[in-house]
Amino acid sequence: MADEITDLNKDIEEHVKGLEARKAELLERISKLNGRLRYKQYEKKALEPFLEQTKDVRVGPIRKNLRELEFRISTQAYTPKIEKDLVKQVKKLEAELGKVSEVEKARRKKMLVDGDIEQVLKEIASIEPELKKIRDELNDHYESMRSERKQAKKGIKSDHMVTLEDVAVFEKEE
To answer: The whole model's pTM is what?
Structure first.
């Protein structure tokens, strides 16, 4: 009977150690994710002033005009003078597009950073329920271990069986 109890306690201790290891692993993962989240938030904050200054810059119309001009040059026949003027306009639009390409890159980067932040938050949210479940299970195990220790200190039998002698007082016949 005592061997069964010690085997049971060993099994419980191994289970608790496994839960503690998994808990530590999840906490380490959350810690790394929080570091990544902090970095992405700083990155977003660094982009915001530049994006605020350049919010009125429109890249789409410049790119559209450039494509239209290139299409017109490649599909229609013009006199050399008109074609030369169109090529100058293309170069001018390309230079303008080069100037605003930084704005476009910053906007794209902000979108990617926002996506990364959202992904990290989802990952953390998916880990938290498992972590809560492990913590609850560990608390239950610890509580049962505490109660067993208290019972052992008081001398209460842990085999969950109560003898009639423990419950009733016998009077001796004389």
So the answer is: 0.62
